[in-house]
Amino acid sequence: MTMDEYLERLKKGTLKLYALEQELPPREAVAVRRRYIEGETGVSLPKIGSFSIDIERAARKNCENMIGTVQVPLGVAGPLKVSGEYAKGEFYLPLATTEGALVASVNRGCGAITRAGGADVRIFRDGMTRAPVFSARDVAHAREISDWVMSHPREIAAAAEATTSHGKFLDAAVTVVGTSVFVRLEFDTKDAMGMNMVTIASERAAEAISDATGARLVALSGNLCTDKKPAAVNLVRGRGRSVSAGVWLEDSLIAEVFKTDARTFTEVNTRKNLVGSAVAGSLGFNAHAGNVIAALFIACGQDPAHVTEGSMAITTVDPRDGGIYVSVTLLDLPVGTVGGGTGIETQRECLDLLGVAGGGDPPGSNARKFAEIVAAGVLAGELSLIGAQAAQHLARAHKQLGR
User: What does residue 98 show for φ and ψ, rounded to 5 degrees?
Assistant: First the structure.
């Protein structure tokens, strides 16, 4: 069948756009769909139809109704010296962005950290969550459900872990509101970000809870997870990888690199990142953590929607004799090095650049290494922007690089 014949069937409605892959190889289906959209809208899409990635894989695993790709400029910042438990050495950060001045800013922060001897980075918690919500008959029944969940972790673990060869059940926390019972299940997902893994495992765990208690499952996700939304529970309990990065900056380095001093740098962080964020009711107490996280996530095949969680970072500055210790803590950083967009060739090359592509040995080590690098990159971005504002250079930088 020719291209024109497929287009005619689409116009008549005898063939649906989403069904093209059932009759054609993915590459041909993408071309037919794009041609149809061009005809319907009167807009030519030659650049969207030009790509280097394996369209066969992407159309099957990453995107429905695919018509092509959108390219995002990719820059590099570094070298960035990292002294973590998993990430050790100097790294060049791949940053996908359309915001002029961002890569230059992060690059300046990387240079400062490397000159200072590197960023100390540590992961404090590692667990992906899903929180089913159940309906109880009354508050007495809600208490029975809660008691059963808290006293039967082995049964929950057995049910959940039967669905995966990689995930491991870690914990369950119960929150009761009237007759609504939320069970926040937490899993070690190794090198995967793990949302698909924990969703499937949580479904089986929820069945076990319902069978044992008579609780009625209302929704597999009750929003106490909390996924892809800024939420205080993730700051308090953590989600994904909870990681901190810090660096000691001497007075001379602050003056030379950032053209300011320790007192001014500290005041900007206090009045802007802490007090300003508090007045705004923000859940992120930082300068622009989301900027760096978004650029790294897009480059490295992470779920961009999780920037909403990662951006809830807290930046602190501790004044000491001779300088300051600056740190950033990301309590909710969902990242992985297998699954999802990490298998797309361009994104995998970026993960290769960082030495974290694929599964680690031991399992989980690559994702944790990546989390440490992301945290150090966020720290670099925080240093540069705080420094620019302390020196009153922000507008000048954007005039030069971001117009």
Answer: -115, 10
Q: For 255-270, what is the mean pLDDT?
A: 97
* Nearest to 249, CA basis, from 384, 135, 150, 367: 384
Q: Provide the 3-class DSSP secondary structure of residue 266.
A: helix
When pLDDT is averaged across residues 295-317 and rounded to a whole number, the result is 97
pLDDT, tens digit, for every residue of 68-97? Answer: 999 999 999 999 999 999 999 999 999 999
User: How many Cβ atoms from other residues are within 10 Å of residue 160's Cβ?
Assistant: 26
Q: Give the residue extent of every domain in the chain.
A: 3-61, 74-126+230-401, 132-219
Sequence letter at residue 384: S
Could you give the residue numbers annotated as active site? 99, 303, 398
- Fold designation for 74-126+230-401: 3.90.770
d(CA 379, CA 96): 17
Q: For 244-277, b where at least 16 C-beta lie within 10 A, e where not — what string? A: bbbbbbeeebbeebbebebebbbebbeebbbeeb
